[in-house]
């Protein structure tokens, strides 16, 4: 999968909450299982695009 395709995938999975893009942790995990993208790649895209990870299943992000 090309980098731009990965970016598009992550951004399309993000939702707008109170004017801020968010991505639930469970959705990020689902993306890794169904697509050729790793969690670190998702994290990097979220950082670059100001997407907040929410409902973290590891307790890292609140």
Describe the fold and architecture.
With 62 residues, the chain is an alpha+beta fold. It has one domain (3-54). Helices cover 52% and strands 18% of the residues. It has three helices and three strands. It has a three-stranded mixed β-sheet with strand order 1-2-3. α1 crosses α3 (39-49). 18% of the residues are buried.
Observed structural traits:
single chain, 52% helix, 62 residues
Summarize the structure.
The chain is α+β, with helices and mostly antiparallel strands. The protein is 52% helix and 18% strand.
Structural domains: how many = 1
Shape, please?
globular
Strand content: 15-25%
What's the order of the H and E elements? Answer: HEEHHE
| Helix-residue proportion | 40-55%
As laid out across the biggest beta sheet, the strand order is 1-2-3
The chain-level structural class is alpha+beta
Poorly predicted runs of 5 or more residues: none
Distance from N terminus to C terminus (CA atoms, Å) equals 30 Å
Return Rg in Å. Answer: 11 Å
Largest sheet: 3 strands, mixed
């Amino acid at each position: 999968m090309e980098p731009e395709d990965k970016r598009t995938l992550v951004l399309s999975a993000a939702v707008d909450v109170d004017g801020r893009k968010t991505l639930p942790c469970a959705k990020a995990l689902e993306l890794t299982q169904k697509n050729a993208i790793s969690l670190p790649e998702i994290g990097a895209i979220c950082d670059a695009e100001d997407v907040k990870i929410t409902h973290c299943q590891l307790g890292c992000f609140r």
